[in-house]
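Let us practice reading a record.
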Amino acid sequence: MKRKIFKHRLVYYLAVITSLLLFIISAFSILKLFDNFSIFKTLVICISLVINAFTFINLIEKYDKAVLFLNLSLSLSIIVLGYPLLLGFLNGYYVLEHFGFKLLVSFILILIIVNVFKVKEYKVTNEIENIGKKED
């Protein structure tokens, strides 16, 4: 029995690659803690690392809460990327050509694609109850 989280296989691969990329980015961001240490930055990086690890594991194992963890992971990344860009935009800087802005837009698009193509209801068939019954 195949479990489906998304309607299309391509969206599943996009979600797995995105969660792996976010996990790698959050793992390497631990190294930036040694440059300028702050408690808030440490807390955000630790939370991001845990959420991204759960996201990747849930997507690979195709658990029910995989889309929820992916939404949490993408939302946290959008907030972390969007806050400095918003402050830069409000201070008059031109942020449309920055790599962070392009990454922010791609994360927003991935979040929309994942939520549009997720399977809303998964029919659970209990195979043990169907033993001895004739199926047509």
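A brief commentary: Helices lie at 9-28, 39-61, 66-90, 99-116.
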